[in-house]
Amino acid sequence: MPLTLAEWLQLPTDLAEYRITDPRVIARFEKFFIRGADDECWLWQGGMINGRRSGAYGGFSADRQTQLAHRIAHRIYIGPIPVGLKVCHICDNPRCVNYVKHLFLGTDQENMLDASIKGKLHGGIRTAIFPPGWSE
């Protein structure tokens, strides 16, 4: 679930990963995916990083280390990633870098809740327990 503006403004100010603004890095990143329609997955065509559970994620070298491509997409096009938050996929496609409609910031708990609601947890609970204020 994407954050509202009010929620965004309440996030911690110390950032785990700052915004990427270097035009050379952005140009290099953009060579590895093709933008489609806003509602489509924009699949990463560059190197891959194997995830423990959910297959291969896109990988991109920035800041002298290989990082997840969807996190880099967020840092370039949306902004910095606050400490403790993940960049999650609405589409559940680990190769997707569609920052317009498919990525959102969330905690581990929100990411697991999203996976549970969608029945994506392997060998785990397939029903969601909703926190107060959330609904099915």
How would you summarize the topology of this molecule?
Layout: H1 5-9, E1 15-17, H2 23-30, E2 48-51, E3 55-62, E4 65-68, H3 69-77, E5 81-82, E6 86-89, E7 103-106, H4 108-117
Antiparallel strand pairs: 1-5, 2-3, 3-4, 6-7
- 3D shape: globular
Q: End-to-end span in angstroms? A: 12 Å
Trace the largest sheet across and list its strands.
2-3-4
Portion of residues in beta strands equals 15-25%
Mean pLDDT: 82
Regions with little confidence, pLDDT below 50 for 5+ residues: none
The Rg value, from CA coordinates, equals 15 Å
Major beta sheet, specifics? 3 strands, antiparallel
Number of strands: 7
Order of helices and strands: HEHEEEHEEEH
Based on secondary structure, the structural category is alpha+beta
Descriptive report:
- The chain has four helices and seven strands.
- The strands form three sheets. A three-stranded antiparallel beta sheet has the order 2-3-4. A two-stranded antiparallel ribbon has the order 1-5. A two-stranded antiparallel ribbon has the order 6-7.
- With 136 residues, it is an alpha+beta fold.
- It has one domain.
- It is globular and about 40 Å long.
- The protein has helices at residues 5-9, 23-30, 69-77, 108-117, and strands at 15-17, 48-51, 55-62, 65-68, 81-82, 86-89, 103-106.
